[in-house]
Design a protein that fits this description.
It catalyses: cytidine(34) in tRNA(Ile2) + L-lysine + ATP = lysidine(34) in tRNA(Ile2) + AMP + diphosphate + H(+). The chain is an alpha+beta fold. The chain is about 40% helix and about 20% strand.
Length: about 450
């Protein structure tokens, strides 16, 4: 064990780690009550005091997953400690029905959704959520992904900053990544600050617990430290950034276009001339973009599809909720309608909802009556196909999975098709711009 492994985090180290928080108006500290997050709470509160009132303002939030009877009591403990340190606190309950399997992943997603909604509710122009991920977490994540045969992207380090959720303006920060868990525990012990112990962290039914208590100690015994694994993850993160740079330049050769998010199309020959890894990365990104709420494919499946597109002159395949069609000149990608299990959404005036993890559907307050959003479907598309410009119509199968707006049994609008409509029909498809379907995807 390194000599400084159990040395508390010094103020000068904390100042350097928390400097990335200074660009925000408000920062929400995600605190569960465990040793890692309690160290975050204490160190951040001390950092705020050293700043003498300069932004950002700080608050704490605890997600009560309602999975253990002790959780509400632990949230109360965090609330009291936050008050002692002069920080406002909020408890965010996860009240949804719990899944029968995949609880850790579902709980993580729920945690980020609740934190994101809470952060957006605060009266601040720029908001960040800060978690207590540390060096040991980085090593555990690397080992977990290595066990699954992950590539460069999967093995890359958890970034110190990213969007909290896809498309969100709320940022996620991880300032404690340079520090091992032992130093965070030492920081609490030096101040006499208590913490709680979540028994699920030691439950061998969960993958992370098995990695933490079985694999990592075995690796350490052979001389492979958590710090070495974290360093490899960081360096692979640098490699990932370089690959992203190369991918952007490869993409620029493809004449890649997005038909108002109805479908993507790119040059087949230019694609086939590219390096294998960049072809795989492009496909993975497009499938994620058009696959909606479908489960993401495995890397091995992406590899097989890229090889097939390279070998076959013409082909059609479905993967990850997306259809990939290769013709003589272009490869096209669109949402596979048969995999879309999106229920109807009822929109009230002024409301925005996420639809199939691809669109934000919205109605302005003056829009006509209650409207529902549902997939257009093949039958309804045939009814309105004549409203589109001949020769410019998108692939019919790509249209079937678009969000359409309905008033009772009457089709009111299909906003995504408005750019393809003859001039006289565009107002119908847009419903006078009162109903909107805005793509969630960021610019490629």
């Amino acid at each position: 064990m390194p000599r400084d492994a159990q040395v508390p985090v010094a103020p000068i180290e904390a100042d350097a780690a928390f400097e990335q928080l200074a660009k925000f108006d408000h920062v929400v500290l995600a605190v569960s009550g465990g040793p890692d997050s309690m160290a975050l709470l204490v160190l951040a509160a001390e950092w705020r005091q050293r700043r003498n009132g300069a932004l950002p303002s700080l608050s704490a939030a605890t997600v009560d997953h309602r999975l253990r009877p002790e959780a509400s009591r632990e949230a109360g403990f965090v609330a009291r400690e936050s008050l002692r340190l002069g920080l406002p606190h909020a408890t965010l309950p996860w009240t949804d029905e719990k899944p029968l399997s995949g609880i850790p992943d579902a709980a993580r997603q729920a945690r980020y959704r609740l934190l994101e909604a809470h952060a957006r509710s605060l009266a601040a122009s720029t908001v960040a959520v800060v978690t207590a991920h540390h060096l040991d977490d980085q090593a555990e994540t690397f080992a977990m992904r290595l066990a699954r045969g992950a590539g460069v992207t999967g093995l890359s380090a958890m970034p110190a900053e990213r969007a909290l959720l896809e498309g969100s303006t709320v940022r996620l920060l991880r300032p404690l990544l340079p520090f091992p868990k032992s130093r965070l525990i030492a920081t609490l012990e030096a101040r006499g600050v208590p913490c709680v112990d979540d028994p699920t962290n030691k439950d061998s039914r969960y993958e992370r617990a098995r990695i933490r208590h079985a694999l990592l100690p075995a690796l350490v015994a052979t001389g492979i430290s958590a710090a070495a694994l974290a360093t490899s993850a960081r360096r692979l993160g640098d490699a990932e950034a370089a690959l992203h740079y190369a991918e952007e330049r490869f993409t620029a050769t493809l004449a890649l276009s997005f038909g108002n998010e109805v479908f993507a199309a790119f040059d087949r020959e230019a694609f086939r001339e590219g390096p294998t890894l960049l072809r795989q990365r492009l496909l993975a990104r497009l499938i994620a973009r058009y696959g909606g709420a479908s489960e993401r494919p495995e890397l091995s499946e992406i590899e097989d599809l890229a090889a097939r597109l390279q070998a076959e002159e013409k082909s059609t395949a479905t993967l990850g909720g997306a259809m990939v069609s290769s013709g003589s000149r272009f490869i096209r990608v669109w949402r596979e309608a048969g995999r879309l299990a999106q229920p109807d959404l009822l929109l009230v005036p002024g409301e925005s909802r996420t639809w199939d993890r691809r669109f934000i559907v919205r109605r302005v307050p003056e829009a006509i009556g209650p409207v529902r959003v549902r997939p257009l479907g093949q039958e309804n598309y045939l009814v309105i196909a004549g409203r589109l410009i001949p020769g410019r119509r998108p692939p019919a199968r790509a249209v079937h999975a678009l969000p359409s707006f309905w008033k009772d049994d009457d089709l009111v609008a299909v906003p995504s098709l408005a750019p393809f409509a003859v001039a006289s029909e565009a107002p119908f498809l847009e419903a006078g711009c009162e109903l909107k379907a805005l793509a969630l995807s960021a610019a490629y």
